[in-house]
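Deliverable D5.2: sample structural annotation.
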Amino acid sequence: MNKRLLGVISLLCFFLLAACQQQATPEDRLAEYIGEWNDGNFAEMYNTYLNQGTKDAYSTEEFVERQVKLQEDLGIKNVEVSYKKPAEETEWDPEKPADFPILVKMETLAGPVEFEKTLTLLHETKEEEENWFVEWDPSFIFPQLEAGDNIRVSRTEAARGEITDRNNNGIAVNGSGFDIGIVPKLFTDESKKEELAKLLGITTEFIDSQLGQSWVQPDYFVPIAKAAKSEEKLLKKVDEIQGVTYQGTDMREYPYGEALAHLSGYIGGITAEQLEERKAEGYTANDFIGRQGLELLLEDRLRGKDGMKIFIEKAAEGAEPITVAETPAADGETVKLTIDAELQKTAYAAMEGEPGASAAVDPETGETLALVSSPGFDPNEFMLGISGDRYKELEEDPRNPLFNRFAARYAPGSTIKPITAAIGMEAGTLNPSEGLEIEGKTWQKDESWGDYRVSRLHPEAPNPIDLNKALVYSDNIYFARQALEMGKETFAEGLKNFGFGEDMKYPYGMKAPQISNEGTIGSEGQLADTSFGQGQMLTNILHLASMYEPFITNGTMYKPTLFLDEEDKQVWKEGLVSAENAETLRKGMRNVVVDGYAQSANLKSVPLAGKTGTAELKASKDEEGAENGFFVAYNSKNPDFILAMMVEGVEDNGGSDYVAGFAAKVFEE
């Protein structure tokens, strides 16, 4: 083949290829256009596929920028555009438009949108290129949308779910409070601005910015701060400043205030970090969100889903708006707790602001009736946005009201002795009627213990010391010797049977109780210490209350629950103590109150039974440290709840009997 013929063939191939490229069908072009549409490539759609008439009618701003912004503002995602394929034998006439039925689907923040349209392609020549081009108008965004119309979004706020106690008493409720504000024409004394700013914990610059808003008029009420109904002193002070007043407004309320603060927690304005994490869930910069306690823990249940509506605001005068998509508001869930808020309030008040914790449980169900951390704080104050000075004041308070003590762990001291006795009796190593001869204030097994000795507080206790006397006199030596008789493995296994070393799987997130840092008992000295609740043993106040359940139920310990919709009477541990041994311990704990050193709890009106305890917190082995006092008690005639209470620093207040007196007030009420 000569070169001339080869050149002719190449030229023919070039023209044939060009002809093929020019002969793209309208369906080919439609498929490409829809692909770009589904991917949100609006610039490519505009530049490559729109016909000249459309481009003359709509600028890139009206086509590209508007649709990009709508996707963001309306939360448009998962766009799916499809078309009905024409018959294979269809012939396309360049002189006639090519029509295709299309289906458009998408998800928006107001719900799904779906519509059908007919898309038309026209054959045109543009810049010496012949091809099929799309004819477009705004109805391909939403069917009823026309040139000049606006797309709007409205939001209907959902009510946050409430938290109530078992008796429907509100713990965190949608109540009311006050907007504090200024009427500009009446606020004429500039010198009062500094005073007002200090009262409200804001700056004078913030006051100026609020008064400087474009909508403000001389006789308008301009909100500058919020106040809870409980802040009566603050409201009275601001009302004394001329031109400053307050108006009622909807507000989250915590009716039990400090008494339930650490349990309820509070809501607050969403932080930038939280907004970044949860923006996809519909949160906005103006939203409130759970910041602590159950308000935080239950955020997903309490938070409602705001209603959203996307609608078209027609340009034509008098035309009714057209709804594109709408999702009604769904209020948050109301969560009922097993807590008895009045009992909790009583327990909190009984502690008189002393640093400590309390827990009350129903021994027959495992339901939590009270969870107190004392002292508390006012969650209403935090919800409104606490000032830096006020937060510093709370932070520097030596009683540490911001620390949640009911979730923390403490050495339980002698309150563990009934558990030690139960383990020994069930193991067959402790005979409750058999007495031990114990002399002196201290004791050690033999010289192998070196300097370590077990001390007891009441060496005057008459021999022989049986279990009843050991409980009444809270004799450390008796329980140390009984633990040695059991042995490390038996005692450690018995403690594990009572829940030590195990995650309680409690919804609030309690610190897990431990036998020791390693979870085992390594020496005889540690065994002795652990038998009376010292050493490295730690537990939380709720677990401590729960461990006394088997003495009332004859062996069963229930999983502690917090929500009323949870199944109650979930057996956590069983067979912990026989009915006979439980009866022995009940009698012994009644005698602790009647004959022992919990006389502040020896009430005529309520026959209490229980066990006191102190746990010494030593700075070093040669120094005496502070003492935490404990009392665990129940009504021996009607044990409808077990109360465990701990107060820090009782060494100068009479020890654990000081705590028994506080606990007795709860039962009296």
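Annotation notes: The chain has 24 helices and 23 strands. The two ends are 116 Å apart (CA to CA).
The annotation will be released with the project's public dataset once the embargo ends.
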